[in-house]
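Predict structure. Chain length: 192.
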Amino acid sequence: MISKREKLSSGFTLVELMVVVAIIGVLASVAIPSFINYQLTAKRAEAFANLGSLAKSQKSYFAEYNNFVPVAAEPGFTLGAAPTTIKRDKTPLNTAFAEVGWVPDGNVFFDYDTATPVDPLTGTCTCTEACFTASAYGNLDGDESLSVVLYTHPDALGGFCETGQGGNQSPPISGGDRAFNEVARVMVADDF
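Prediction complete.
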């Protein structure tokens, strides 16, 4: 037969359950923002991969035709008007960049463009030939600032094109020098 004392000690009290729920709540409040930042960083990786591939295509085109190809913003020219949290169709990119032969790997979160001295888009160029800036930009986190990633290929004298998208972005400074011929994130453009 079970005694009265054994019946009372078999289970959790309401206070113990409340303490456990409070601990889980605190852990969740710390973990969820970190998880969201990891997701946004993973989405930004698309821009790094695509800009590296686009730069190779532009340089291959230049080797054959002695010219870089300017391309206006595709696929949407949204400039962060709406958060780019859903992938968009890559078909406009396929068409816009057909001349250089670049096709992104799958649908995209970012808009892509290429500024050259022939057509600096809405930015400015300090070079006269043989330079380009490819940019990717999108509003991944839905705030007021764009995520901007650049690949800047300067001319022989170090002149380059800014991108007019996201506020005339110049190549970021890395280790005291401009980040040329590499994919680089514009740090002031986003906060994750």
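Summary: The chain is about 35% helix and 15% strand.
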